[in-house]
């Protein structure tokens, strides 16, 4: 198999537009979760009134104004999630200094961008318009804006990339699947470079209502939104919906070396599994996540003791965080692993940016890449008291403050409704 490395990164997140701004604010302990109750009367009556929203404002301030980031024609044709993806992709391509012009290079560059829900706004608004006014009220752009694969399609059209053009939609595992699958396209020789990631923009009353009805969302901290996402904390009570996009440039190792590209890390392993258990709840023993991490390390050819950091999926739900915590300990402790739980460095960045659904796996993968590249563990915000029960939550969860740490190997976990799991193993390029 051909080796795959990361040569570029880009993001649009609740901490700002741009990966450097996002990373610095994350490391500084900032939170991008705000109140939604004043957005509209529909938001005000929901049991969960918090969300992690991409900040609106001027480009010079690292905030979102579509007219400053997206061409006029594209703004009309593209749904918000696709706009986010295009901006993140542009940053990643510039970061990688990959701007192919020859036919050979265009044919060997592909795009793989996924989304968990896509453009819910378009589906909702068009359904209402059709109900009131019929056929003529349906925009000819309705279907192209709705389709999840159009994020990848618009990126490939903008840059002329003629390699694999693909999309995934696997709930909250989407972003991780996009990176892992794209890496396999490179490993098998279908492409030399892949623009890969996830995008989401569905902070809509209908989406929040749906998740709230399934009792998945945080509802206890509506008056203190910055405290509402509390991974691994004993007072955690549900996740906070978020939006944004994250894109990485994956590249075949020899191709990257030949052009003198900066290499952030190697995507050394990719593991996938299924819980085969329940539509929305994980197995309490975390066996599905255990399998995905185990497969990722097997693919990478690395023992459990080599893992120095795990960016956990941990969404701030009572059952999910506990199951993942158990899975990590079951895999990384023992004969071929670490000696004691306090040696395990685990954090969940969802305390700062909420849960980006289909984009979660890709932005959290970038946080792992930067942890390796810069030697910093991002913090788990709002972690006051690990537990419940406390004796099971005895690892280093990087509470509230970032920690300096040399990281050679890191795992990024993503799990989704339907029991779908993925783990990405990144390693320092040697």
TrEMBL record:
<comment type="similarity">
    <text>Belongs to the thiolase-like superfamily. Beta-ketoacyl-ACP synthases family.</text>
</comment>
<dbReference type="Pfam" id="PF00109">
    <property type="entry name" value="ketoacyl-synt"/>
</dbReference>
<keyword id="KW-0275">Fatty acid biosynthesis</keyword>
<dbReference type="InterPro" id="IPR000794">
    <property type="entry name" value="Beta-ketoacyl_synthase"/>
</dbReference>
<dbReference type="InterPro" id="IPR017568">
    <property type="entry name" value="3-oxoacyl-ACP_synth-2"/>
</dbReference>
<dbReference type="InterPro" id="IPR014031">
    <property type="entry name" value="Ketoacyl_synth_C"/>
</dbReference>
<keyword id="KW-0012">Acyltransferase</keyword>
<dbReference type="GO" id="GO:0006633">
    <property type="term" value="P:fatty acid biosynthetic process"/>
</dbReference>
<dbReference type="GO" id="GO:0005739">
    <property type="term" value="C:mitochondrion"/>
</dbReference>
<feature type="active site" description="For beta-ketoacyl synthase activity">
    <location>
        <position position="172"/>
    </location>
</feature>
<dbReference type="InterPro" id="IPR020841">
    <property type="entry name" value="PKS_Beta-ketoAc_synthase_dom"/>
</dbReference>
<dbReference type="InterPro" id="IPR016039">
    <property type="entry name" value="Thiolase-like"/>
</dbReference>
<dbReference type="InterPro" id="IPR014030">
    <property type="entry name" value="Ketoacyl_synth_N"/>
</dbReference>
<keyword id="KW-0443">Lipid metabolism</keyword>
<dbReference type="GO" id="GO:0004315">
    <property type="term" value="F:3-oxoacyl-[acyl-carrier-protein] synthase activity"/>
</dbReference>
<keyword id="KW-0444">Lipid biosynthesis</keyword>
<keyword id="KW-0808">Transferase</keyword>
<comment type="pathway">
    <text>Lipid metabolism; fatty acid biosynthesis.</text>
</comment>
<keyword id="KW-0276">Fatty acid metabolism</keyword>
<protein>
    <recommendedName>
        <fullName>3-oxoacyl-[acyl-carrier-protein] synthase</fullName>
    </recommendedName>
</protein>
<dbReference type="Pfam" id="PF02801">
    <property type="entry name" value="Ketoacyl-synt_C"/>
</dbReference>
<feature type="domain" description="Ketosynthase family 3 (KS3)">
    <location>
        <begin position="1"/>
        <end position="428"/>
    </location>
</feature>
């Amino acid at each position: 198999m051909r080796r795959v490395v990361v040569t570029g990164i880009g993001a649009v997140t609740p901490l700002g537009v741009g990966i450097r701004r996002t990373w610095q604010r994350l490391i500084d302990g900032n939170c991008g979760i705000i109140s939604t109750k004043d957005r509209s009367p529909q938001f005000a009556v929901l049991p969960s009134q918090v969300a992690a929203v991409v900040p609106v404002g001027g480009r010079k301030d690292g905030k979102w104004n579509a007219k400053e980031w997206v061409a006029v024609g594209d703004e009309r044709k593209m749904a918000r999630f696709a706009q986010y993806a295009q901006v993140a992709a542009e940053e990643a391509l510039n970061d990688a200094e990959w701007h192919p012009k020859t036919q050979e290079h265009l044919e060997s560059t592909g795009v793989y961008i996924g989304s968990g829900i896509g453009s819910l706004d378009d589906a909702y608004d068009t359904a209402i318009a059709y109900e009131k006014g019929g056929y003529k009220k349906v925009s000819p752009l309705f279907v192209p804006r709705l389709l999840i694969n159009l994020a990848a399609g618009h990126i490939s059209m903008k840059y002329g990339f003629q390699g694999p053009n693909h999309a995934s939609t696997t709930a909250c595992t989407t972003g991780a699947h996009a990176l892992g699958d794209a890496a396999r396209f490179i490993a098998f020789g279908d492409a030399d470079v892949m623009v890969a990631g996830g995008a989401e923009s569905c902070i809509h009353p209908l989406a929040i209502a749906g998740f709230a009805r399934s009792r998945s969302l945080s509802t206890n901290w509506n008056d203190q939104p910055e405290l509402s996402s509390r991974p691994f904390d004993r007072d955690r009570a549900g996740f906070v919906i978020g939006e944004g996009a994250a894109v990485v440039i994956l590249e075949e190792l020899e191709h990257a070396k030949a052009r003198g590209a900066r290499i952030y890390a190697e995507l050394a392993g990719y593991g996938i599994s299924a819980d085969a258990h329940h539509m929305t709840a994980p197995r309490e023993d975390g066996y599905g996540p255990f399998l995905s991490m185990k497969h990722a390390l097997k693919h990478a050819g690395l023992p459990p003791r080599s893992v120095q950091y795990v960016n956990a999926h941990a969404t701030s739900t009572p059952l999910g965080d506990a199951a993942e915590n158990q899975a990590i300990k079951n895999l990384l402790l023992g004969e071929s692993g670490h000696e004691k739980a306090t040696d395990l460095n685990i954090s969940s960045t969802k305390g700062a940016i909420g849960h980006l659904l289909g984009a979660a796996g890709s932005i959290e993968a970038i946080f792992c890449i930067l942890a390796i590249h810069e030697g910093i563990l991002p913090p788990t915000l709002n972690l006051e008291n690990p537990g419940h029960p406390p004796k099971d939550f005895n690892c280093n969860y990087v509470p509230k403050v970032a920690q300096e740490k040399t990281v050679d190997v890191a795992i990024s976990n993503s799990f989704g409704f339907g029991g779908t799991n993925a783990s990405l193993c990144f390693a320092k390029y040697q």
